Amino acid sequence: MNAKQTVFVDQYTDGILDPNKEMEYVVKDGGHIVANTTPGCWGPMITPALKGGHEVTKPVFVEGAEIGDAIMIYIKSIEITSFATASGNDKPVDGRFNGDPFVAAICPVCHTINPETVIKGIGNTAIHCKNCDSDITPFNFTHAYTIAFDDKKSVGLTLNKNAAEQVAGDGRKFMCTPENSIQNPIVTFAPNDMPGTMARIRAFLGQLGTTPARALPDSHNAGDFGQFLIDAPHDYGITEEQLEDRTDGHMDINRVRAGAVLICPVKVKGGGVYLGDMHAMQGDGEIAGHTADVAGIVSLQVRVLKNMQLDGPILLPVEEDLPYLAKPFTEQEKICANQLAKQWKMDEIDDLCPISFIGTGANLNDATTNGMERAANFFDITIPEVMNRSTINGAIEIGRHPGVVTVTFLAPESYLDNKGLLDIVKEHYLL
Asked: pLDDT at residue 196 above 80?
């Protein structure tokens, strides 16, 4: 296919990110991707025909991207289109999956694997097997809510029983589910456990990245959720070593929002940029396991960076989202530092710029180690140096509990220059 300056993406995977499938969309280096994304977690979780726990866009081939390169993704805009959604804590339903309810749902009556479904009525028994008409949802809520948004998408309000049931009666309309999406709208369950709660809206992408080097369920393309695949009994079971083929596109880091830049590893030819799982809001950690998943319109710009040899993503958050200690120094602070240098008869002071490395693992300790190792390997420095810089010039922040973090610190400009990132970082932060 000929590469286009702008591609418009409205097709979705079946939940599996498969590097062996030909990519239907091709964009030029420096071109734009505009996508209508589907809601993430809960809708796909109650749609057994989806095999990954999410429903992300089909990957986009970026012209010129080769294995070992990186793709820089500028998040130009994120716009929520949903009017309402539902979310909450989950509990798998025994007997309705083979090893993993996100991946291998099974009808408890006719035993069809990943069956198609139909919706009958509302409530948590509304999802029925198309083959035998049995209640089939592999997940239920433990505590949950339906939340509606104002027209400006600035504030949300959780609904009472009557309002939640009104939304449930026309779920695809209220969630603005894209036409090519097959997921069942989660508002069908009409949860209403904490009505009248206000929430601020700040949209971001829970899924954004590049295609892994082996076929993986989309929500498991990370070091924490990927643990469920190790020695799993279904078709996508892998070894611990094979999990290294991931690209950590499923981050749930609330700083992956409009204005940020994400630099992603290329592990298959063309990179295969995909996105989805837009959230209306989320506190650090996504401690409930899920948040307000919404449909939306996203605009990205992509650029190939040659021979970067990244293991995982690098994030350049908007300056507002940087930890206090990792914000660029003001001119007044630099004057004070120069006075100190003069006082102590020192000739040089490092010029420093912010950078965040994504780390993922089975738990937060493993994720922190992974992020520090990635930073150390990238800059060819020691882990103790990363520890020190992250301590006095940065922070370790939780993206998702149990195992996604950002390791953020101010790096010397010489480090960034050696890796070809200095101009990119200085341009992003107007330094």
From this structure: yes
Query: Across the chain, what does the average pLDDT equal?
Result: 98
Q: What pTM, to 2 d.p., does this model score?
A: 0.97
Q: 40 and 298 in contact (C-beta within 8 Å)?
A: no
Q: How many Å apart are CA 54 and CA 105, to the nearest integer? A: 13
Give the pair of three-digit tokens for residue 129. 């097997």
Residues paired with 204 in a beta bridge: 279
pLDDT at 95 over 90: yes
Note whether 123 and 189 are within 8 A (CB): yes
Contact 140, 133 (CB under 8 A): no
pLDDT at 398 over 80: yes
**Helix H or strand E encompassing 116:** none
Q: What is the DSSP string of 276-317?
A: EEEES---TB-TTS---B--EEEEEEEEEETT---SS-EEE-
Full DSSP string of 361-398: -SSHHHHHHHHHHHHHHHHT--HHHHHHHHHHSEEEEE
The CA-based dihedral angle spanning residues 192, 196, 201, 206, taken in that order and rounded to the nearest 10 degrees: -20
Cα 296 to chain centroid, rounded: 14
State the sign of the Cα–Cα–Cα–Cα dihedral 236, 241, 244, 249: positive
Give the integer Cα–Cα distance in Å for 29 and 305: 10
How far apart are alpha carbons 15 and 274 in whole angstroms? 12
What is the number of helices (H) and of strands (E) in the chain? 8, 20
User: Among candidates 41, 115, 33, which has minimal Cα distance to 288?
Assistant: 41
Per-residue pLDDT tens digits for 169-195: 999 999 999 999 999 999 999 999 999
Has residue 1 got a pLDDT over 90?
no
Closest CA to 103 of 214, 234, 231: 234
DSSP class of 137: -
In the numeric block, which tokens belong to residue 164? 């939640």
**Rounded distance between C-alpha atoms, residue 114 and residue 45, angstroms:** 11
